[in-house]
Amino acid sequence: MKKYIWVMLILGSVVSGFSQTKEEEIMRLLELTGAKNLAKQTLEMFIPKMKVLVPSVSQEFWDLFMEKMDLDVFIKSYIPLYDRYYTLEEIKALIAFYESPVGKKVVEVAPLITAESLSLGEEWGLLMGKLILEEMKKAGYEGI
């Protein structure tokens, strides 16, 4: 019985250590990918849109809101997702990629591509909206 307890304790510490290592590697990957900066960029793009929706809210409110946002807590919430979908070996391979020159460039240009993609998406959406309205009018829908 004592042997069984010792074996369980040893196995438990090995599994616990493995999880700790994987969690640390996931955090390292998230740092390398600039996840925190992307989250901040997303918030900074979101707030101007909220200002338009609720113009009565003061700039002071938005400044305080940004100060209160704990992006570290948000980023840590990604750990279970990465743990679920990637093995430790895959996490390490991703880390190797993001430490490479090409991986560093991906992180560097990702915010630029994201910002430009949003603009392209808005332009495309407006164009599609106009085309849909034209097609509706051609099809005989009234009041458009």
Can you put this structure into words, describing what you see?
The structure is a single chain. The protein has 144 residues and is an all-alpha fold. It folds into two domains: 2-99, no CATH class; 101-144. Helix content is 85%, strand content 0%. The protein contains seven helices and no strands. The chain is extended, with a radius of gyration of 24 Å. The model is unreliable at 11-18 (pLDDT under 50).
Short description:
The chain is mainly alpha-helical.
Cα(first) to Cα(last) distance is 80 Å
Provide the structure class: mainly alpha
Sheet with the most strands, sense and barrel status? none
Instruction: Enumerate the spans where pLDDT stays under 50 for 5 or more consecutive residues.
Output: 11-18
- Could you give the count of β-strands? 0
β-strand percent reads: under 5%
- Which descriptor suits the 3D outline? extended
Topology, please?
Blueprint: H1 2-32, H2 35-53, H3 59-68, H4 71-76, H5 79-85, H6 88-99, H7 101-138
Helix pairs in contact: 1-6, 6-7
List keywords for this structure.
2 domains; single chain; mainly alpha; 144 residues
